[in-house]
Amino acid sequence: MEIHWHSSFPCYTGQLGNPVSRRLAHAAGRLHARRAFEAYALNHRNGLSVFLQDGNIALSNNICERAIRNFTIGRKNWLFSALPKGAAASAAVYSIVETSKANGLEPFRYLTYLFENLPNINFKIHPELLENFLPWDEEVQQNCK
């Protein structure tokens, strides 16, 4: 079934009944604001309407925003993030922790599992072995919940 999102996305039709047209009408007195809003909406049309193409896509990224809130608040207090390598390491660890949470794992158990098992794996020669350590792997799920 092909979805014609042009007909499903009335925001650009100019009808005053849709949110974009109402916002534009409200901003009519402020020409600069109106032009900025129009330019943003038109330039980001594909990204703003992607949720119409797949019902599994969330309308907002609030889940991700909430997940990183503690990290963004705390990053000012972490001295090792003052350098690019420290920031990259911090981001990698935080990504692992949040991915483990998102997959129903206990982060400390998952990190312990990784630190105990990854040093014994020659993943430079066999990178496909890393798939066995991803948080959705059955063995990882059994050992880290």
Condensed summary:
With 145 residues, the chain is an all-alpha fold. The protein has helices at residues 5-8, 19-26, 31-43, 45-48, 62-74, 84-102, 107-117, 138-144. Helix 6 (84-102) crosses helix 7.
List the helices and strands and how they pair.
Elements: H1 5-8, H2 19-26, H3 31-43, H4 45-48, H5 62-74, H6 84-102, H7 107-117, H8 138-144
Q: Could you characterize what this model shows?
A:
The chain is mainly alpha-helical. It is 54% helix and 0% strand. The protein is built from 8 helices and no strands. It is elongated, with a radius of gyration of 23 Å.
Flag low-confidence runs: 1-16
Report the biggest beta sheet as strand number plus sense, adding barrel if it closes: none
Choose one word for the global shape.
elongated
Number of helical segments with 4 or more residues:
8
Instruction: Please compute the radius of gyration using only Cα atoms.
Output: 23 Å
Strand segment tally = 0
Give the distance, in angstroms, between the N- and C-terminal Cα atoms. Answer: 39 Å
The proportion of residues forming helix, as a percent range, comes to 40-55%
Provide the residue-averaged pLDDT. 76
- What share of the residues does DSSP label as strand, in percent? under 5%
Secondary-structure element string: HHHHHHHH
Class by SSE composition: mainly alpha
